[in-house]
Amino acid sequence: MTRCLLLALGALAFCPAAAQAQAPAAPAQTAPAPAWSDHSRLLPDELRRLPGGLTLWHSPNVVYPEPNPAAPGGHVWKHSTSVRAEVADLQVMACGSYIWYSAAGWQTNIRQTPAEFAELFNCPGGKLKQGVAYTFVRNYRYADRGQRLYGGDALWFILAKDAQGRLYKGYALIETEAEAQVTK
Fold it and tell me: Does residue 133 contact residue 82 with C-beta atoms inside 8 Å?
C-alpha cells in the first residue's frame, strides 16, 4: 500500500497538470461589503468619521414627479444640486449618491468620477475654490412610461481633499415623492 502511494505521488510530481487538478479550489470571492453595515448609525460607512468641509444642498427639496414632455407618458423629478467648499480649496475625489427606497436602507446608487463631477457641476478640473458654489443644474430623476412611480430618499455626497491630502465630506438628503404635488 505504501509503495502504491509513493508511486502515485511520484507520478503527480512529474505531471503538474494532474497535481493542479487535485489542488483545493481557490476560495470563493466574497460579496462586496454593504454600503451601510451599521444600521444603528445614519450615514453609510464611507461617509462616517470624515470631517465635514463641504456644504451640499438640493433645490427644490422635496421633489414631486411631473409629466415629462420629452418622453410622453414618462415622468421627471426636477432639481439641482449645489456644493461649496468651506475649509479650503479642495480637489474632488468622489461624488455620488445612496438611495433609500425600501426597508433595506441605504443602497449604493450613483458613482461619478472626478471628471464626470467636473462636467456635471461646471467645475473645471474638479477643483473647488473655497466659498464658490458649483451647481449640477439638471440633476433630474426620470421614469419611463411603463415604470411604477416610487418615492425615495437620496443621500448625495462629495469627497474632496485639500493640498495636504486631508479628506473632507459633504452630503445632503433629497426627498423624491411618488405622487404629484397637490396644489390648493
Answer: yes
pLDDT of res. 102: 83
The DSSP annotation for 107-155 comes to EEEEEE-HHHHHHHTT-GGGEEPBT-EEEETT--EEE-TTSPP--EEEE
In the chain, which stretches have pLDDT less than 70? 1-33, 184
Check residue 3 and give its pLDDT: 38
- 75 near 146, Cβ under 8 Å? no
* Chain centre distance of CA 112: 8
Residue for cell digits 439638471?
A: 138
pTM over 0.90: no
